[in-house]
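Lab notes, practical 5.
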Amino acid sequence: MAIDYGTKRIGVAVSDLLQIIATGLDTVSTKEIFDFLKDYMSREPVTTIVIGEPLHLDGNPTYVTPLVHEFADKIRKLYPEIEVILQDERFTSSDAKRIILQSGAKKKKRRDKSLVDKVSAVLILQEYMESIR
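Output from the prediction step:
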């Protein structure tokens, strides 16, 4: 599972059992994410959660980075059996917007920030899976 953390919304992506293909699952309100995770993990096996770590182009943390670290720590405490990994997400939002544009999505769909969050989570997960192969 991958998470694109945001202060308002969180994009969530999952992989198939063979960990070959990442798919956008949902976009969830940040306030509701722990209920969402509890519900999802009661139905589906999750062995790893990859969380996008926001960094500036020079590698320094952004203002959101400490919030992501707190979020990751909370997941580690709630689910100690699940590996939690931080993955550099410097270019995922811009890549997600480009992919949505190239997909031929109409203008209204391209402005849908929840879609960008979900696609960003897919990119975070796909990059992680490629790095472990």
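Observations recorded by the TA: Residues 113-132 form the longest helix (20 residues). Residues 2-132 form a domain with the Nucleotidyltransferase; domain 5 fold (CATH 3.30.420.140).
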